[in-house]
Design brief:
Radius of gyration: 19 Å
Strand order of the largest sheet: 6-5-4-3-2-1-12-11-10-9-8-7
Mean pLDDT: 89
Helix content: 10-25%
Number of strands: 12
Strand content: over 45%
Structural class: mainly beta
Order of helices and strands: HEEEEEHEEEEEEE
Number of helices: 2
Low-confidence stretches: 1-18
Largest sheet: 12 strands, antiparallel
Length: about 200
């Protein structure tokens, strides 16, 4: 077998593996969980008119790495405030390719993540599940929900809102990961806003 033939075979083996360039807004060197402290406020009808301080720890874990992307889990732990009722924030499962961050929104996300990680190419994504992009801009409206994603300097900003007052905002930073996460229901009926403290390790 001549050298040209060997080189061609090696290239065909390597190409599928090298097809995924790390997403600059959400990446990890390995599968070890990385945590970061977030500070912010929360509000609700039970709390009263004034927002109160809220702290949390966000744990980011790469669950799987494929030739075309990766799957991450974002868990919100150690939520603390002086509210009588302890706030809970469900974890987000995210499918990450080199140009998108997409919410995995299934009934059993652990099972779905395992199934998707075995695919040889990314599945079809619903527009309303796209939480991040690496170039251009994005806008999508489903009934009265409107979502936009914009890039500003080293940030990727996802903003979704509904005329009723519901909203969700997620901000990613290049080389860092999640830096802001906020969600609200109704006209201040319930909600929270969390921003990441400065940390030396990438998430």
């Amino acid at each position: 077998m001549n050298r040209c033939r060997i080189a061609t075979i090696m290239l065909s083996i390597l190409l599928p593996v090298s097809g995924y360039a790390a997403n600059p807004f959400l990446d990890a060197p390995d599968d070890k969980p990385v945590s970061a402290k977030f500070l912010g406020t929360e509000w609700s009808d039970d709390i009263g008119e004034q927002d109160i301080p809220l702290t949390a720890r966000v744990v980011t874990t790469r669950m799987a790495k494929m030739a075309w992307g990766a799957i991450f889990k974002l868990e919100f732990t150690d939520l603390k405030s002086r509210a009588e009722k302890q706030r809970e924030i469900r974890p987000d499962y995210l499918i990450v390719t080199d140009n998108q961050i997409v919410l995995l929104n299934e009934e059993d996300n652990d099972a779905a993540a395992k199934k998707i990680s075995a695919l040889d190419k990314p599945p079809e994504f619903e527009p309303n599940d796209i939480y991040g992009i690496t170039s251009g801009s994005f806008e999508h409206q489903e009934e009265e929900w409107k979502a936009t994603i914009k890039l500003k300097a080293d940030l990727c900003i996802y903003d979704a809102s509904h005329p009723s007052g519901h909203f969700k905002k997620i901000v990613w930073k290049k080389g860092v990961g999640l830096v802001e996460y906020a969600s609200g229901y109704g006209a201040r009926a319930d909600g929270y806003r969390l921003k990441r403290e400065v940390t030396s390790r990438k998430q």
